[in-house]
User: Fold these one by one.
Assistant:
Number 1:
Amino acid sequence: MTVTASRFIGDTVTLTGRSLRHILRSPDTIITTAIMPIAFMLLFIFVLGGAIQTGSDSYISYQLPGILLITVASGISYTAYRLFLDLKGGIFERFRSMPIARSAELWAHVLTSLVSNLISLAIVMGVALLIGFRSGAGMLEWLAVVGIMILFTLALTWLAIIPGLTAKTVDGATAFAYPLVFLPLISSAFVPTASMPGPVRWFAEHQPATAIVDTIRNLFAGTPVGADIWIALAWCIGILGVAYAVSMVLYRRRTAG
């Protein structure tokens, strides 16, 4: 390992520890992130679930993948928020006066987002298990679900970096997450797309949430995933690649000089 790579890893670990300590001092951030998805889950199961025909024996098993996506979409708004506050507080200028690898600052926010979102997902999964979720998945299927959720979280986190770097206000930094939270609602997450009217059905069937939801649902059930998994991976990797490239360009411009 080169000295530069070793320094980057060491700086990233140190700065990630700093960000995680901030979260540990205010655990309400993670709890708040988990509350809305749990509320959605309880609403759909106990209020609306009886009126929705999905062809599935267990509605909680049907809608849980969509709830997991909503959990991440609501959680990454805090990434943009924390990055915005760091920039406004001048912490990045302070870091630049120190021998710290420049990109380590961004990666620390990304890794903090990944850890905090995984904790939120674990909380949501725990509630789902308490109210009756059961899975026929084996170890490989569970590992595949975890891998997809990590990739999805990284993709949305790098997407969150963009408003974190460019927003003029706190509201502007966090508002971008609202469309992402509602995107799973217009997908196969809660009702089959066949029940939707023409234009809505077309959109639902060709947006990323549907492929990801269908893949996770089949993995939980222990059934073949078909081509959905490749479509889901293509969406996640595509969003991740574009968001990462744009974020790095914006970050270099923002910290130039």
Number 2:
Amino acid sequence: MPKNRNTFSSLTAWRREIASRAVHGGWDWIKRTGAVTAEHPGRLRFRRIGAGTRLAFPQGTVFGEPWIELGDHCIIGEQVTLTAGMMPGLDLGTEPILTLGNGVVLGRGSHVIADTTITIGSDTYCGPNVYITSTNHSYDDPRQPVGKQWPRMEPVEIGPGCWLGTGAVVLPGARLGRNVVVAAGAVVRGEVPDHAVVAGAPAKIVRTWDERDGWQPPLRTPAPVPIPDGVTPEQLLAIAELSPEEA
């Protein structure tokens, strides 16, 4: 009897392993096939989608594509929402409403809601669940439900080279300069100058940089040492395997 039970358990485990490989293999195929690129846009007809840009599958809510421009080599994670206009089917005129520069990264679950213009500069990276919107509710009439009052819209501009941490929120009218860091969970409104770090809700500047004084307040850790030119992957692997005493 124990022998039969062991044989049955082995057969069950083998079947589960085969089924697991089939499910994972099938899901990998679905994700590859469902990804959106310039060569394979599927049902989405963007105003422009650049070379090397990829929207991972499954996509989030996407509408207003004729007014959305995506630059080259952008990475759009799973379940990312990209919308132009308040609802599908509107005529938004001749100019783009939502523009992503080259090399923009939008992390999984992020939302970019462009009821009026939003521009995200090249090489800006966003972590997961970042929320960028050009629209906010209004509360002019305290007797009416807030959701039924006409919203306010202001353009949003995010400069090139920025980094937006997980869960950051960028509100209507925000203008971020070049190479700005937005801390995780920060809520940004108004103008942020170049080379600033902001944190908090509402976000405040906690660090700045300029040519004369460098970082103020000074960084607490030294800058990482870049890998020298000409170092091969094999050499890096060999260094990683050394003990601290050997290194």
Number 3:
Amino acid sequence: PLSDVTRFCCSSCCGFSYSSNFPILSIPSGLTHESHKKDVEQVYLRCSEGSVKWMYPTGALIVNLRPNTLSASYKHLTVCIKPFKDSSGANIYLEKTGELKLLVRDGDRSPNKVYCFGYDQGGLFIEATPQQDISRKITGFQYELINKGTASDLHTVSAPCRPCSDTEVLLAVCTSDFVVRGSIQDVTNEAEQQESVIDISANKLYRQKSKVFQPTEENGSWRGQIKTPLECGVRPGDGDFLFTGRMQFGEARLGCAPRFKDFQRMYKEAKDKGLNPCEIGPD
């Protein structure tokens, strides 16, 4: 059965399909299909997010992302993949019109590294590397398709440490997965993971799509954690901030985070000019 060889899991229900030169409806593994090491299989995924697990990889696998969206909107999509911690046995390339660009090298153990590229830059070509014992090899990764047309997505994916402009902040308030007013209680730097974990106490919750912030017994406040790259150098500080960001592979990632008094200023200025992209109470 297919589940014995390769698993394709989608968190949004939409299905998948695949093509093969073989009559059997499965993607052959090296343990069951040793004589076809040079075969190239194709998989079509129609989910906006999910995961791929290729067990005992031999030959090559082409992963075609075909989300259930209008083809005209493809150019606004960014694809991000996050290899499993124990993924091994294959190199992952970005492929377009026959040209390959190495994305993830077999054996790369960069913790929590996320690789992103524009949907129009090509698809994924996964090629098994020669192995003495393939029975111990499993190649896998999570993937997400995000809309690169929003300020919060652009900031989080392409330049997470760059200060946001006023326009980007106002758009992030409208489009982020979470928007809270609060203060930094603590910052834990995880050198091995190359990340900082920001512990936040929030006194105003404007929006959250996931339960990042949980209510406490302290005067109706909320507590939660947000991650950001270690290189951003986030430190604890006094005063309130407006924290925005998005969920990426089940984790809250920091987007734009201006001081709250600066947000109040830019919000009022935009409102006076009738340029606010959405309404949100600044107080």
